[in-house]
Amino acid sequence: MRRIVARLLSAVLLGAVFLVAPSPAVQAISTQTYQWRNVQIVGGGFMPGIIYNETEPGLVYARADIGGAYRMDNTTGRWVPLLDWVGWEQWGWTGVVSLATDPVDPNRVYAAAGTYTNDWDPNNGAILRSANRGATWAVSPLPFKLGGNMPGRSMGERLAIDPNRNDILYFGTPKDGLWRSTDSGVTWSKLTSFPNPGDYIQDPAEPNNYLNQPIGVVSVTFDKRTGSAGNATQTIYVGVADKDGTTIYRTINGGSTWELVPGQPTKHCCPQHAVLDHVNGQLYVTYSNTPGPYDGSEGDVWRLDTASGAWTRISPMPSDDSNGDNYFGYGGLTVDRQNPNVVMITSFTSWWPDEMIWRSTDRGTTWTRIWDWTRYPNRSFRYKHDISAAPWLDWGGAPSGGRPGAEVYPKLGWMVGDLEIDPFNSNQMMYVTGATVYGSDDLTSWDAGQQITIKVKAQGIEETAIQELVSPPSGPPLFSGMYDVYGFTHTNLDAVPSAFYRDRIATTTIDYAELNPAIVWRAGSPPEGVRAATYSTNSGSSWTSVGAQPTGTTNGGTIAVGANASRVVWSPDGAGVHYTSNSGKAWTASSGIPTGAQVRSDRVNPNKFYGFANGTFYVSTNGGQSFTATAATGLPASGQFKVVPGVEGHIWLAGGTTDGVKGMWRSTDSGASFTKLANVEEADTIGFGKAAPGQSYMALYTSAKIGGVRGIYRSDNQGATWVRVNDDQNQWAWTGKTITGDPRVYGRVYIGTNGRGIIYGGPA
């Protein structure tokens, strides 16, 4: 659950259509054209679905839970992001709960967008429509929320296009039943004839308002044989998450009436995927006892013969196996359209020793597994693994549990909620994981008893939630901290880094000694048994865990390294502010500053540190031993502040998201007083980069609203004027966590996103 701070979206009416176009707001600031690209990580988050077009070879899309949608460029073999135009106010549209590519007109593609069904996202969802493969989009707002990052997000697909009459679309919602459009997705209405909106809720009493949400209608599958070109398909199968296990419904009259499919299994609540073999008339369904994608302790696979009505359980490891071999849910499901006797399925919650992939060449009568036990804890493998495109996927090679020897690294993955064979090439398949997209180009070698090669297929996908970015004046150009894959030392922005934070601390705070930049500290959320802070004396080439941490520490909070590294001040979550003078071997509590305060160091004076909490600013002149509240007034209750390198006591503060006091403030007297900038309406981040030619003061960078326009801005004259450096096609939704300039390259800025990785750019 990667939460972000949300902004309100103006109310919209069902059926209204919005074209993605430049903002009509009158801009009171100048603009500059920048070139943008991703700092290369390759992957890093969960891609819940892979969607092939079944009439045009090579046309394939992927959807992200918080990072938008992608289309594969077959010339380069890289994924192309499609939703970077989504702006600050509509940030939830980057959570794509379902995607459909038109089998009649392959230029058309649709995305059901919305990140949360609970109050984390105040906005409703939308159907995004494109007639040019995602180059531009139109928007049809919906009167309810969608859950691209909610439980069950790898189920589906919920959104489907009638393969015989492509102006008809169906969409399964989480709370509002089944909806239909008859005008190519422009307007939508609830299909009142559908009897069951889905009543399964994983944990009605869950206090975080996440597991207590309905999962709803989860899949729509057309039987193309029951229609003809231009005439609507008559038989449609719909999957529903239902607490009583009555999950598969069917219409045989184009949606006029519906019935439960007779004889269906009712043991499990949650049909993960449904796929129809149009040649043999077989409907396959994978089930789990939870919606997933990270839990589920049992499941089954069933096959319906649509002609006879007979259901057959074809689970390779049945849920009632007396040996206890089934401890997972079944997720991914695909039929080889070139040879429909071939079926493949996956587990998606077999965390140990690894996920499982099965292949059948006789419609599920018999199965072979991608790995097997030999003499426990050893295994044999029907695959070779190539992670050269993202070498960090070995996760440091350390087993996460169980008997030594049973786990191997890299793993096949986890949360393998979707696997798809290319409908035009039996040798090619791709599957999703919690960290990347994997695939194979020699899949049929499996049937010949040879090993297939599993390799990274995520080039172009950057799906990390960035928490911290730091660019020092020497050494690597960038350090990053993030959820999911922890963070990196980036020695080359355009190459996947090899310096992965192998201690598995999900890094949320980083600082270096301004006068000795080779010394770098970072902290964050650690795995069990690991301390929350670590440091490097060689510019991040290697890291050493602190010898101790303050009592009560849970997560990283903020960490501040003195200008010459003689003192480090740490304000970890769960403990008060502390300082160390011996590289973290021991910590002493600071006085005069509240628990949870944000802390920073002066970039010139080694003895000076600053703090900020609840609208009050604090300063220490004795290396963090004691802090004193300054007399500064008018500050917001919350915000992000940073200290300018090279000038003692110059501080910039951006913030104000909880108390209505918003904007940007600066201090030139070590926080004794602050001045609010009149030309910045809202600001959430602040960072510094190399000064402009002819200037001595560092350039400022911010994610802010200036002149009525949300964007990424640079100022070369200490905030007197601002230049917008991004544009309406490059917004990346919510960018309010972290930003920094590069102290060595004028104009270069690094932007942390919530699901699109690290964006960097400079003047075109």
Describe this structure in words.
By secondary structure, the protein is mostly beta strands. The chain has a domain at 505-636: YVTN repeat-like/Quinoprotein amine dehydrogenase (Methylamine Dehydrogenase, Chain H), CATH 2.130.10.
Question: What labels describe this entry?
Answer:
764 residues, 6-stranded mixed sheet, 5-stranded antiparallel sheet, Methylamine Dehydrogenase, Chain H, 0% helix
Shape: globular
Q: Which sheet architecture does the biggest sheet show?
A: 6 strands, mixed
Helix content: under 10%
Q: Gyration radius, to the nearest Å? A: 27 Å
Structural class: mainly beta
Detail the topology: elements first, then pairings.
Layout: E1 18-19, E2 30-31, E3 34-38, E4 49-52, E5 60-63, E6 69-73, E7 78-81, E8 96-101, E9 109-113, E10 126-130, E11 138-141, E12 159-161, E13 169-172, E14 178-181, E15 189-190, E16 217-222, E17 236-240, E18 248-251, E19 259-260, E20 270-277, E21 282-288, E22 301-305, E23 311-313, E24 330-335, E25 343-347, E26 357-360, E27 368-369, E28 371-373, E29 379-381, E30 383-386, E31 419-421, E32 429-432, E33 437-440, E34 452-456, E35 466-470, E36 478-482, E37 487-490, E38 499-500, E39 506-513, E40 516-525, E41 533-536, E42 544-545, E43 555-561, E44 568-573, E45 578-580, E46 588-589, E47 598-601, E48 609-613, E49 616-620, E50 628-629, E51 639-643, E52 651-655, E53 663-667, E54 675-676, E55 682-683, E56 687-689, E57 699-706, E58 709-715, E59 723-724, E60 739-741, E61 749-752, E62 758-763
Parallel strand pairs: 2-59, 30-34
Antiparallel strand pairs: 1-11, 3-62, 4-5, 5-6, 6-7, 8-9, 9-10, 10-11, 12-13, 13-14, 14-15, 16-17, 17-18, 18-19, 20-21, 21-22, 22-23, 24-25, 25-26, 26-27, 28-29, 31-32, 32-33, 33-34, 35-36, 36-37, 37-38, 39-40, 40-41, 41-42, 43-44, 44-45, 45-46, 47-48, 48-49, 49-50, 51-52, 52-53, 53-54, 55-57, ...
